Amino acid sequence: MEKYYEFLLKEETKEIFGKLDFELKSGVHIQYHHPDQESYFLFVRKYFSSLYDYYKDLFGVILDRGGEDLNAFYYLSFEGNNRGAISQRYFLSEECILIGLFVCKVYNIDFNSEESSLNLFKKLMLDEYEEYKDDFYKLLAGTKTTIYTGDDDIELEKSIRNAFSEFKKLGWVYFKTDNQFVILPSFERLRMLYVNEIMNIQEIATKRNQQ
Amino acid sequence: MTEFHFYHELKKDKYYEPLIPEKKSGLVIIYLYDQWKSGKYLSNNFTENAIKSAIEQVASDLGKSYENTQHERFRIINRGLQEYFLFRNEETNLYHITQYGIEFCESIRNKIELEFNPSVIEKILSDLISLLKASIANNDFEYWYNHHFQNQKPYIKRQVETLLKLVEKAVQEFRASTKSDDEIFIETVRKVDNSLEAVRKHSDELKDVFFDAEEIKSIIIELSFDEYSLDLISQKESVRSFIEEINNDLSIINQRIEKIRPKLRQFISSINQRNFDRNTEHFLQYLLKNSYVSKDSSKNKVYFPTSIEIPELLKSEIKFTIVESDRLKDHSPVSVVQPKENKEKQKIQLEKANNAFLIRNRIRLWLMKLEKELRDNGNINFTPYYFQILEEEQFYSKTIAIKVASGLFRKYSKLRNYKVSIKKELQTNEKYPDQGIWDMNIEVK
Known about the structure:
The complex is a heterodimer of chains A (211) and B (445).
Chain A: H1 11-25, E1 30-31, H2 38-46, H3 48-59, E2 62-66, E3 73-77, E4 90-91, H4 94-109, E5 115-117, H5 118-128, H6 130-141, H7 150-170, E6 173-175, E7 180-183, H8 189-193, H9 195-199, H10 201-210
Antiparallel strand pairs in A: 1-3, 2-3, 5-7, 6-7
Chain B: H1 6-11, H2 13-19, H3 23-37, H4 48-62, H5 70-84, E1 86-89, E2 94-97, H6 99-112, H7 118-137, H8 141-177, H9 182-209, H10 211-222, H11 230-290, E3 292-296, E4 299-303, E5 312-313, H12 343-377, E6 379-381, H13 382-392, H14 397-414, E7 418-428, E8 436-444
Antiparallel strand pairs in B: 1-2, 3-4, 6-8, 7-8
Helix pairs in contact in B: 3-4, 3-5, 4-5, 7-8, 7-9, 7-10, 8-9, 8-11, 9-11, 10-11, 12-14, 13-14
């Protein structure tokens, strides 16, 4: 029997698929709680298996899923080292990853309200999580001492702003205004990317100490 | 036949005490039975010395020093046990455990040892069915009821109870483990989950096996007698209700397990989540402590320790290049605007530029002069120079004087081997009554 992709035969596909396809291929994570993505989410959920085949067969990439129920999120990912038909390479910078892991800590582990703002986030980093503060200054603002100036604050703020704009592109956060954001369920993707390192951190740290 | 009152009879000391022994006597029988079954004694035959050493063993295990001597202890306990538990052959002076004693030991053992054996039940049930059929042919249902069914009933019931106890035991094990630390806890929860799965399997097996019991039920229901006695009716009813009871118990076991297991899973996943969260924090700390900053084309860049890779994410910059048809059409020529010359404006701009140039030059000149003096004399008092600048400069003198002051002091207050001191005492000059300056000095340290 010839293979066909179920979703392509549906009326609603006309309305949704073009835009959805752009989003997915731009690396956006699709989820219910993003105010602009509800219809995309429901569409992907409904036609998941034929969409999965479509992306795998035609582009050599995987339509993946994380989270449960309405906290689920969908995204395209590579299958192992196979890069499919996608030629550009995209990596989050180390700065973004550090800030992102801190976001996971603050919002997903410690349950600070996921509706927050860049100012509040910076305040949390500097005032409420003292144990991380010096390292963040050191790495993000390049400060060598523990006496900080306004310039260091500006550098830090720049890094935060830059990281959040990357997170926004990925659909991990949603910005209500320039400053106010909402952390979305797909932020967990960052921890999924590092799941092996996280689960084996003790061994990794011990190995490094032995070197 | 006089009626038998079980309770009233047992109440009497002559029955209760010897039939239901105290711990120190009861354990002696259990000890002997155990030794016999474990092969220490070849048969149910014990010498008097064996009895004596069993009594002493129990006495020492209970850790109590009885008031009596060893001899008295033997006399009292041995005599008590001989009423129902031990039989002494007077000719050989050998003892054996009575049938009552054996049943006593076995029923206790069955209660404690949770042994599960569905294949035995299967055999029992199929035997019961064929015996039932035979008894019906012989018109002897009552015999089947009293001697086959009644005999096997306790074994079947015990098997179901065993399963219930296994569930109970698993739950208790789980409760006890909640106090232990995470690693042991999660290990135990997994074990409990597995043992419940095993119980559920057993219960399913038993249920399958018990399917045969339905045949007994249907045979019994169809059974008709020439003469109905009250006994027969109640026997029929008792078989039927027993089978239903067992079926019911088995469903209860499964229901309990189905309720408990999802909760256990939730526990496991919440603990896993907790571990994952804690490890995420360790991971973040690890990265923060072990990453380093390095200049990368004039910008600072963070580098992770070598063991940590940067995962690649999918992002393709899709761009459609669509040539709009409009663009291919001829366009009307666009007129080129020629700027008009504005002499007036040019003059003003030139003047501004000349002035700025002049001011910059004069400032540089003064700074060079002052710095030379500072180098030559090792110090400089700026205040008189301020007024000197005002006097010597013809144009923009005030701007030049102020800029020289700020340029000079900005530079030298940053340099470590110079000392800048400013006394907040206003210095004035009568030529310039509207102006004043603090007493400002610079010296080489």
